[in-house]
Amino acid sequence: MCELFSYFCAGDKRKEKFVATWLSHLLCDSQKPIETVLLCHHSTDDLKVNKLKNTISELGPVTVNSKNEHTKVEAGFNEDLVIFCLSADYVQRSEHFFNDVSTLMEGDGKNEVSYFMMEDSYQDLKKDLASKGIKRENVFFFDDPDEPSIFRIHRRKKKENSKKKTVYVSGCWDAAPMMEHVQKLTSSFTTVECHFPRKTRSIARMSKEDWSLITDKMISSDQYLIMISDDYFYDEITSMECELIRRRGKIIHIIDARKSKDREVPMWIRSMRIIPYERDDDVLNVLLLHLLDDQQGHDTIIISFHPSDLTNAERCLTMFRNGLSQCHVRLSSDFPDSKTLFQQIMKCQALILCLSEAFMEDKKCRKEVEVAHMMWKKLIPINLQSTPAQMERPDWLIKIIGYHQYANQEEINDILSQNVLLSKDNLKIENWIQRNITVPLHSDISTQISACRDGCVRGPQHTMTDAFGKVEVFAEGGLERRAAMYVRLSTNSDLKTVASLIIDHWGLEQPRLLISVTGEGSQIINNPSKSRVLTNALQNIVKEKGVWFTTDGATSEISKVIGQVVEKEDVNERPTVIGIASWEYLKMNENLVIKHGFGRWPATYSTREAIKASGEYHLNPFCSHFLLPHKCAVVNENGNSSVISTARFRTEFEEYIRQGKYALQKSRCPEAIPSLLLVVGGDPLQSLSMVKRSLDLRRPVVVLRGTGGFADTLANAFTKGRTDELKIMDILTHPARHHLSFVNLNDDRCRLGHTILDVLLNSISDDEQKLSLALGFDNSEKAMEHVFFDNRKTQRLEESFVTDLMLKAMREEKVDFVRLLIAECVDIEKFQLNNKDKLYTSKYLPDELRRQLGWDTIPTIENIRCFVVRMIAMDVFVEYDVNMDIRDHQVDPYFYLMVWSLLMMNLRDLSIFFWQHCKEPLPSALIASGILRQLRKGCQVTNRILADKLFKHEKEFVKLSCDVLQEFFEDNPEDTERLLMKPRPRWRNLSCMEIAFRLKHRPFMSHEACKIPIYRIWFGRISPENNSLRMIISVFFLGMFPFVLKFIDEFPNKSENQKDASCCSRLCDKIKTRIVEFYTAPIMRFSHTMASYLLFLTLFSYTLLAGFTDHFHWRAMLLYCWVITLMLDQIRELINGIEENKIFFGHKYRRERPSVVQVYFRDKWNYFDVTILCFYVIALALSFVPSYTAVEFSRVFMAMSLIAFFMRILKTFSAIEELGPKLWMIAAMAKDLMFFVIILMVFVVSYAIAAYSVIYPESVVDWDLIANVLRLGYWNLYGELLLEDLEAKEPDCSFDPAVYGADILPRCAVKHRRLIGMAMMGVYLLFANVMLLNILIAMFSDTYQRVQTKRNQKWNYERYALVKEFQRVPVIPMPLGALIYIHYLLRWIYRKCRRCTVVSNTEKVVSGKDLNEIETINCLERECVYLFMKKKTEESDAQKQITVQDISNIVSEQLTMRINRLQSFTETQLMSQISESLK
Question: Is the Cα torsion angle 1286, 1288, 1290, 1293 positive or negative in sign?
Answer without folding.
Answer: negative
